[in-house]
Amino acid sequence: MKKFVKLAALAAAAVMGASSLAGCGSDDTLVMGTNAAFPPFEYTTTNGLVDEFDGIDVAIAKKIAESMGKQLTIEDMEFDGLVASVSTGKVDMAVAGMTVTPERLENVDFSDPYYVATQVMVVAADDDTITKAEDLKNGKKVGVVLGYTGDTIVTETLQIPEENIVRANRGIDVVQDVKNGKLDAVVLDSATGKALAENNGLKVVEDPEVFESEEYAIAVQKGNTELLDQINEVLSEMTANGEIEALAEKYDGAAAE
Ligand code: GLN
């Protein structure tokens, strides 16, 4: 009997094909890697004693899992480790408000984009010295999140000197530093920057000439076309029927602590 079970399991694995062998989820789970400190896309809410994940990306990932008849499992980790976790198969996909960049494309494949964002500056409500990105070069102390596109822009595009950059693992940590006067500005993605600014009595300054638009997409292991096709199908359905837009509205400014 035991042997039969084993053989049956092997046969099932063979039927599941390459993608389930390459991925880390079992046959009935789909593992999403994320950094749940990025409202309104992913964050934790405390309902009673149990922390729960919520946000636009979590809702999208649930739909993807559902479409495959799988249970969604969420691995919360530092943003900087996500690409490696996808490329080594530790997680099946990264759904993390992740911008498609040429560097990341060297290590993972991306789905079709599902959201367009840009970087913004979060500054004190009464600050009138920062009205454009160039102003950050006037000796301002700038916070970013390690490995985010905002980090690249501040470091490489604006070339802010290293001694004036503070890198944190979560947006809220550097935003708190603007609140308590330790930093002059934080460069962060638009929706998250807006949510964190609103909840902390700060304001957002935009500069579309310097901060170009960025596309968020879902990352999968290189060559995992089976999962990628499935994701794209769900995304195109959710875009066409207005579900993604509805999610963006629903979560606007959500849980930005
Ligand atoms: N969009 C930014 C990036 O990809 C930040 C993403 C995030 O913090 N989750 O770098």
Set down the secondary structure blueprint.
Blueprint: H1 2-16, H2 18-22, E1 29-34, E2 37-38, E3 42-47, E4 50-54, H3 56-67, E5 71-76, H4 82-87, E6 93-94, H5 102-105, E7 108-110, E8 115-117, E9 119-124, E10 142-145, H6 149-157, E11 165-168, H7 171-179, E12 185-189, H8 190-199, E13 202-205, E14 214-216, E15 219-221, H9 225-240, H10 243-250
Helix pairs in contact: 3-9
Overview of the structural elements:
The chain contains ten helices and 15 strands. The chain is of the alpha/beta class and 257 residues long. A five-stranded mixed β-sheet has the order 5-1-6-15-7. It has a five-stranded mixed β-sheet with strand order 11-10-12-9-13, sandwiched between helices. A three-stranded antiparallel β-sheet has the order 2-3-4. The longest helix is centred in the last third of the chain and has 16 residues, at 225-240. It is globular. The termini are far apart. The relative contact order is 0.19. Mean pLDDT is 89; it is low at 1-22. The structure holds glutamine (GLN). The site of glutamine has 12 residues, from loops.
